[in-house]
Write a structure and sequence with these properties.
By secondary structure, this protein is an alpha/beta fold. The protein is built from 25 helices and 15 strands. Helix 6 links the parallel strand 3 and strand 4. Helix 13 packs parallel to helix 14 and helix 23 crosses helix 24. The protein is globular and about 70 Å long.
Length: 611
């Protein structure tokens, strides 16, 4: 390899260096490839979505955890079928199997090792592919890969997904992986397979990352337009899609809409029109939006209906981006799958919803939807590049009031870079003024690959620390760890303002992360529990009771939820239900010093529980 002269700080030097690096990566990739034999079978693994440290069998038995079908792996399986249809593909959804096994006697979280190793032993010349989408399950993702590599060192271990994309260097150095496919990987993976099977040695899998002589190399950046119309209907034979609803949910919405209804997820387009600074979509999926044909979406939904699916969640990040296409799709669903119901956890852009769109969303089966609001401060909305305004959101809100049977939830974020408490209060006051069924508040978490991550890093914010997984804010998830069984740290202990005292914070103050957690708790409790609009004279008690039941499945140690359920059933005149949850509230309160102090801060929680 040519060595450029180090004293030439010129554009030519930069180009030469990049070219030499890429040439070196190409040669190293070819060398690695020559050592591999083509697979006869492929094992595609979806890890558990809950780390062992946070897993509670009680919640799993209640179907309180998420159980998203591994749709990404279905797309990878479709690529394998196209390139090498002779390969046998196994899709091993360890999350599904964990949740299904959790109700059995003698259950162990570590069941996965024997299950996976037995499958590997049965296969002829397999490759293993593991998906890692989120930071929360990176620990078990790495553990699975390391175990495979230790037990079967000769088998190639591949990885892909959002988290794998951004942590590829760390994972290749320590994770037991041979190749990592970054960002949308269908095109990379297709070229990789063609290289392996010697069907094409000219098109490289651009963007792939791997190790060579102790160094992490990449074949440049992912290039080419990834196809979105891959037909994955045949791949559904590899998973028991009609059983997923029995062991978990699609966030809370699928449980709210009916935990007895089999569900699936469908992706109709990729990408997003927005440039939100806190979101990885444009970095991971690229600029612009690529849509599947309406015909292919309808065909997939019909296949799912035949398999017993009765509700779907759209995985799209911008489901409403093309008005005419959206109307066409919704009308086709209404006509051809008239009993289908759908939800949207990913959130819709309110500015795209007009009267006609809203009407056809409702007719086609809309039951519950999130809308990305993020901030109630117009200046902040511009800073984070959110494609909306408070005026547009109020217009959408007036339209939503015409559809009381639909559950509407707004997403809000507090703790943007240099956000003052006054700007957070704008979000709080705006959320209250909307009077939607729910306002989901989150503390801002900078994600690698976003503009906001760079801003936080420049500010020296602890949230860009290498240990990015923040402990859950809701105490219901953490009873097993004992963190909330001890005496709750009061304001006197920490110097923080807690409870209603947070409203005394100076409006020009930029709160610390610890203070943000208290702001989050108070905003959430006040708007959603103590003053939920559905408890008012124009509210829908059946709707909010069903919603609290859905959340409670995942947070059975949360006293505020038990209290809210007691109140809901009392207001509906259902004494048995009210007494049941009052008793549950008493049990939690007796066990938890944390909640004992919370009810001192908020006596209204006691009032909700019939005191």
């Amino acid at each position: 390899m040519k060595q450029p002269e180090l004293n030439l700080a010129t554009e030519e030097y930069v180009v030469a260096t990049v070219t030499d690096s890429l040439d070196h990566a190409k040669q190293a990739y070819k060398f690695n490839l020559e050592r591999l034999t083509a697979p006869q079978e492929f094992i595609l693994v979806s890890p558990m979505q809950v780390p062992e440290s946070a897993f509670e069998q009680e919640i799993a038995k209640r179907s309180g955890y998420f159980n998203y079908p591994p749709v990404g792996l279905l797309y990878i399986a479709a690529v394998i079928r196209q390139v090498a249809p002779e390969i046998k593909v196994h899709i091993l959804d360890l999350n599904f199997e964990m949740l299904r096994n959790a109700s059995q006697e003698g259950f162990s979280y570590n069941f996965w090792e024997k299950r996976l190793f037995d499958l590997i032993e049965q296969c002829q010349s397999p490759y293993i592919g593991i998906s890692c989408m989120f930071d929360v399950n990176k620990e078990i993702f790495v553990k699975i890969a390391q175990a495979c590599k230790k037990q079967f060192p000769e088998i190639p271990v591949l990885a892909g997904g959002v988290q794998a994309t951004y942590d590829y260097k760390e994972l290749l150095e320590n994770g037991g992986f041979d190749f990592i496919f970054r960002k949308e990987s269908e095109l990379q993976f297709e070229n990789f397979l063609k290289n392996i099977f010697k069907k094409n040695d000219k098109d490289f899998p651009w963007g792939i990352a791997f190790n060579s002589e102790g160094k992490t190399l990449t074949l440049g950046e992912p290039t080419g337009e990834v196809p979105v119309d891959l037909d994955i209907r045949e791949e559904y034979c590899a998973i028991p899609i009609e059983e997923y609803h029995l062991h978990g949910g699609l966030a809370v919405f699928s449980r709210y809409n009916g935990k007895e209804k089999p569900f699936a997820t469908v992706l109709s387009n990729r990408g997003c029109r927005a440039y939100c600074t806190f979101c990885t979509v444009r970095d991971f999926n690229g600029k612009g939006i690529r849509a599947r044909s309406v015909e292919s979406v309808i065909d997939e939904i019909k296949l799912l209906w035949k398999r017993g699916v009765r509700q779907i969640d759209w995985l799209d990040d911008d489901f409403l981006w093309d008005r005419e296409r959206t109307l066409h799709l919704l009308k086709r669903i209404t006509e051809e799958v008239p009993e289908l119901e759908w939800i949207s956890n990913n959130g819709l852009i309110a500015a795209a919803i007009d009267e006609e769109i809203m009407e056809w969303m409702f007719r086609s089966g809309l039951k519950a939807v999130k809308v990305g609001i993020e901030s109630g401060n117009d200046a902040m909305l511009k800073k984070i590049k959110k494609p909306t305004s408070k005026r547009k959101l109020m217009m959408a809100s007036a339209l939503f009031k015409k559809y009381p049977k639909v559950f509407f939830s707004g997403n809000f974020i507090v703790g943007f870079p240099n956000e003052t408490f006054g700007e957070m209060m704008d979000s709080y006051e705006f959320a209250k003024s909307l009077e939607w069924d729910w306002a989901s508040f989150y503390v801002c978490q900078p994600l690698v690959g976003t503009e906001m991550f760079s801003i936080f890093r420049e500010l020296g914010d602890d949230r860009v620390d290498s240990q990015r997984t923040q402990k859950a804010l809701n105490p219901g998830r953490l009873k097993q760890r004992g963190e909330f069984n001890a005496q709750y740290d009061t304001a006197e202990d920490t110097g923080l303002l807690t409870g209603k005292d947070i409203f005394n914070l100076p409006r020009d103050q930029i709160p610390s992360l610890e203070q943000l957690n208290e702001i989050w708790f108070t905003f959430n409790l006040d708007i959603n529990f103590l003053n939920n609009p559905n408890f008012g004279p124009k509210g829908n008690l059946e709707k909010i009771a069903r919603w609290f039941e859905s959340i409670y499945a995942g947070y059975p140690f949360d006293a505020s939820m038990a209290a809210a359920l007691s109140k809901s059933y009392k207001m509906m005149g259902q004494r048995e239900g009210s007494i049941h949850y009052k008793n549950r509230f008493d049990e939690i309160l007796n066990e938890s010093g944390y909640w004992q102090n919370r009810v001192k801060e908020f006596p209204e929680i006691l009032e909700m529980a019939e005191y």
